[in-house]
Design goal:
Layout lengths: L14 H14 L8 H31 L12 H32 L2 E3 L7 H13 L6 E2 L14 E9 L2 E8 L6 E6 L2 E6 H8 L8 E12 L12 H12 L4 E6 L5 H11 L6 E3 L38 H7 L2 E5 L5 H12 L3 E8 L7 H11 L3 E6 L7 H13 L3 E3 L6 E2 L2 E9 L2 E9 L11 E8 L2 H16 L9 E4 L3 H17 L5 E6 L5 H13 L2 E6 L16 E6 L4 E2 L3 E4 L6 E5 L5 H5 L1 E8 L2 H16 L4 E5 L2 E4 L11 H7 L3
Parallel strand pairs: 1-6, 8-9, 11-12, 12-13, 14-25, 17-22, 19-20, 20-21
Antiparallel strand pairs: 2-4, 3-4, 3-7, 5-6, 7-8, 10-17, 11-15, 15-16, 16-17, 18-25, 19-23, 21-26, 23-24, 24-25, 26-27
Helix pairs in contact: 1-2, 1-3, 2-3, 4-5, 9-10, 13-14
Length: 673
Amino acid sequence: MKSTPILNKNPIINREISWLYFNQRVLYTTLEQSIPLLNRLNFLAIFSSNLDEFYMIRVAGVKEQIEAGYKPANEGEIPPTELLTHINEFSQRLTDEQQDIFRAIKKESKKRGIVFLDTIEGEILEYAEDIWLQQILPAISPVIVGPASPFPFIGNKRLTVLIKLRKDLLTYYSVITSENLARIYKIRLNNNIFVLFLEQIIKKFIGRLYHGYSINDCHVIRITRNADLTIEEGAEDLLKTIEHQLSERRKGEIVRVETDSVLSGEILSFLQKKLNFDKGDVIYVKGTLDLSFLWELKLERASLTYKPLKQYIPADIRLNSSIFKRIMKKDIILYRPYQDFSLITKLVEIAANDSNVIALKMTLYRTNTNSNIIKNLIKAAHNGKRVSAVIELKARFDEENNIGWAKLLEDAGCIVTYGFMNLKIHAKSLLIVRKENKKIVRYCHISTGNYNEITSKVYTDVDYITADEQVGMDISALFNNLMGYSDFTNYKRISVAPAMLRNDLIKLIDEEIKNAKKGLSAKIIAKINTLTDKQIISKLYEASNAGVKIILIVRGICSLMPGLPGVSENIEVKSIIGRFLEHSRILYFYAGGKERIFFSTADWMERNMNGRVELLIEIFETDAKEKLKKILEYNLKDNARAWILQEDRYTKAEPSDTDTPFNCQEYLMEHPL
């Protein structure tokens, strides 16, 4: 599919449009026959989940701009009304394609004994009726809308069945919501697995609910609500404010209405009156609503899924107190998920039980439920160690989870702070303070990824562990800043946003520009998730015109347009979409032959530079630098899962006749660093 994006004159690709292109790349991954069938279904689920969050946050923001009467300040910026129309049209086309792909995969899965039923009939009917009687009917409460029964509240992303009824020449509407009901039901029969959807079963037996009524029409709808939290300036208690906002989130304004069939004008008008949405918010799904449920299949078919990932811990590391001697001897670089994040979990456990450790300090942004890291922080506090945790309560969609962890840590006697009203703490760092030979030694862990034992198996991230004295001093100062609310300045080994990071990046680019103008080799390689910061984009355009060779590996949104004559002809952009979500951020600057290597928690976005606490650190140790360079090398070599951005179009990378297909993720699974 081709869709002409709307561009301003800077030249900048609109952020929302670029994001839709990213999700299109996710969708098209399902077309790759080399990917096992069940994993292709998972990519369909990822596409749906991505689009949900996009509407809940980004589209909600566009609608708020429209309501506020916002008018673009820049001549080339897209007016929000025009942008919203384009978003909805683009989303409709992508949704149509998703359903076409799902239909094709369903045909293929049927040959493999996994049958997604389009109709409930034959011998399956009896099983479906049993599910209806035993599991669904007792849990649903049909409501006929009227003066005594107002239209029920419909929660965010909840399937709802809307029925139009007739009785005594009068029209009625009834609503069935799906709170606390499973979405899919699996029936094993004749060596096949039959998959039924909740809405299919309800619609099959719905006639049994309305005695004395005739059913004229039946639709399945699903609404998406604005889920962005708004923290008012002057709020005195961040914890209470977030808790209040979470209760309000479920009532957010509607930003999208999905329906499984075309709504008549009468039904549409009825819904608009009851739910308050615009006609343009309706997306007609020509098939099955909300394919994110495909994650719930959980079918044990080894031949239809990726082969298991074998993670490992470097052979020279012992998971006991001797690990501190190993860190003192040499820095450690891990690259997840190929190397096992459990090393970090174990490091926290070792520190919690080590009599020489006197303090642990940690930032927590997104942490999994049942977290062993949190349990070990609590254990450390019980063991008399001084434990400090900086918990980011505003981590989107993890707010409730983080509030729970904060209270548990406080109850255990840990010192807990919640960050800032106007800044998100996105820096990922752990500080272990240990007494050795009457001296204080600081051990630091800095990562591009979260302290999350679940996502560590599916995200690529860099972990850096060091006993470098200056890094320890800097991270100690950072925690003092985070917990004492002082300024983020006077660091020597790290650069911190919002105070320093953008300026330091621009200085690094400026050095390449100077070298290029002198006729020297100049090169930049940046592996990041997102590029939207206009100041950095402008500086990259300047570098390109100066002759700096720039290669950007940007997984998601990229507002920069590469390959434009006289603007960005020395810039290349590629995106890798594969089994693992590319999440690490690694930067390379040729620096006149010195080859400086950094990694960072920050993407190149205005929000990361201005509204978050982020870290950037240069790596000096030779082996560690070589590992990071290898990661970049393999990413650049990838021609199997890569997409190339040329001006405003992404095309799938294809190996030439002389090239061997190279999948960097598969290679790293077989040849870990």
